[in-house]
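Could you please consider the sequence and fold following this short note?
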Amino acid sequence: MNTSNAQPATAVVVGGSTGIGRGIADAWAAHGIETHVFSRSRPTGPGAGRLVWHRLDLRDAEHAKEKLAADMPAHTDLACYSAIYFTSRREPFTQTTESDWLDQFAVNVHGLTWTLRAAMPALRAAGPGLFLHVSSEVVYNAGPHRSGYAATKAAADSLIRSVSQEIEPDEVTFVQTLPTGMVDTPGIRARRPADFDYSGYMTPAAFAPLAVELARTRGRPYSGDVLVVREDATWSSISEALPTSQSRPPTGDHG
C-alpha cells in the first residue's frame, strides 16, 4: 500500500515488537509501508525482517527523548503509540511499589508525550498524518487492583483528546483503538500459569484490518474516535457501546 502519491509511506510504531503494536506494525509493513519499530526488545518471528528496529527504553527519560528526536524519520505519515507498562500482577494501591508506579507513568503517559512531540512536525507535513493511540477499556472501567494502570491510561486518553482539539484534522488525524477483550501477548503470558488456556483471548492480528484501513484513509472517517476491535477483526465506535470491564477479583493467575 502506498498512502502518498509523492513517495512511499513511512510509519512509526512505538512499542511495536510484540502485542497489539506488533500486529499493527506487521500489517503496515505487509502492505508496503516502511515501518520503524521503537522498543526495548528487537522484533522476532515471522515478519520481523520487514521492520526497521530502534532500541528505545522509555523508563530512561533522557535516552528516550534523544532517541525519538534523532531516529524519527523526517518523512512520517503514520505513527502509533502502543508501548505499555503494567505491574507483574494485579495488586492493591497500597502494595504497589514506588518504582512500579513511576514506571507506569514513564511509559504509559510520558512516553506518549515524547512521541507526540517528536512525531508531530513530520505528521503535520504529511498533511494529514495519522496518530494512532492504543488505549484500554480501563479508561472507562476503573477497577480494583490496577490503580496505576487505570490512572495512566486515563491520562493518556485525555492527552490524546486534548491535543486532537489543538491541531486541525487536515494536518493530523487522531484515532484511538482498544480491544474488546483480553489479548494474548507475551506480557500477559508472563502473568499467567504455564497451563493457562488462551483459547478465549484475542490475538494481535485482529488489529491488522483496522491498521490497513487507517493507513488507506489516514484515519479521516474516524478522526477523534475511539474504535473497539473485536475478536473477528471488525470494529465499532466507542459511542455505540462501552467495552466490557476486565476488572475482577485477583486469582491465582494474577489477573
In short: The beta strands are 10-14, 34-39, 51-55, 78-81, 129-134, 172-179, 226-229, 235-237. The two ends are 39 Å apart (CA to CA). Residues 1-5, 249-255 have pLDDT under 50 and may be disordered. Residues 10-237 form a domain with the Rossmann fold fold (CATH 3.40.50.720).
